[in-house]
């Protein structure tokens, strides 16, 4: 995990909002990730201290749910669907195109910090397969060349 120190004031405010709620850990982690972009080590330890629970328990929750990140992501988070429809319609070719264009594989961030690739089980857009999302924008009916053009647009 990252050894960087973060401003912990915001996480203290968030945890205080859930005082007395024993079942709030997921909500706290979601909000922490919104604030910091991921779950930094010092933030996890501060949540553990404030909630009087073991950091290992927090890590257990954070690593169980795929929504949580323990490392920073790029400015543009690419979620590439690898579900059945996308797989059958060429998701592997799209993944290769992303690698050719950006030099990153699943779970990696580009050297410039702009892009992170994350493959996911389903984006719920099967009729548009293969599909990728970049931040909140969905791109469907992809070909490798179309995917590269989209990525070049984000680079520009």
Overview of this structure, please?
- The mean pLDDT is 94.
- The chain is an alpha+beta fold.
- A 4-stranded mixed sheet has the order 2-1-3-4, covered by helices on one side.
- It folds into 2 domains: 56 residues; 80 residues, Glutaredoxin (3-Layer(aba) Sandwich), CATH 3.40.30.10.
- Helix 1 packs antiparallel against helix 2 and helix 6 packs parallel to helix 7.
Summary of the model, kept short:
This protein has 156 residues and is an alpha+beta fold.
- What is the averaged pLDDT score? 94
Low-confidence stretches: none
Name of the top-level CATH class of the largest domain: Alpha Beta
Give me the side-by-side strand order of the main sheet: 2-1-3-4
Strand residue content: 5-15%
**Count of separate structural domains:** 2
Q: Which value, in Å, is the CA radius of gyration? A: 18 Å
Task: State the fourth-level CATH superfamily of the largest domain.
Answer: Glutaredoxin
Whole-Å distance between the termini? 31 Å
Number of helices: 7
Q: How many strands, what sense, and barrel or not for the largest sheet?
A: 4 strands, mixed
State the CATH topology of the largest domain. Glutaredoxin
What is the general shape?
elongated
- SSE topology string: HHHHEHHEEEH
Query: Which structural class should the secondary elements be placed in?
Result: alpha+beta
**Percent in helix:** 40-55%
């Amino acid at each position: 995990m990252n050894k960087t120190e973060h401003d912990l004031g915001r996480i203290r405010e968030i945890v205080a909002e859930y005082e007395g709620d024993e079942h709030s850990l997921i909500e706290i982690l979601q909000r922490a990730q919104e604030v910091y972009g991921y779950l930094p080590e010092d933030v996890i330890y501060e949540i553990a201290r404030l909630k009087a629970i073991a950091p290992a328990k927090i890590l257990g929750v954070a690593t169980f749910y795929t929504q949580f990140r323990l490392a920073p992501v790029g400015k543009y988070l690419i979620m590439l669907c690898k579900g059945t429809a996308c797989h059958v319609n060429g998701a592997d070719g799209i993944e290769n195109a992303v690698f050719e264009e950006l030099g990153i594989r699943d779970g990696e961030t580009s050297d410039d910090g702009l892009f992170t690739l994350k493959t996911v089980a389903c984006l719920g857009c099967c009729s548009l397969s293969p599909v990728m999302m970049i931040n909140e924008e969905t791109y469907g009916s992809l070909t490798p060349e179309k995917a590269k053009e989209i990525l070049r647009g984000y680079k520009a």
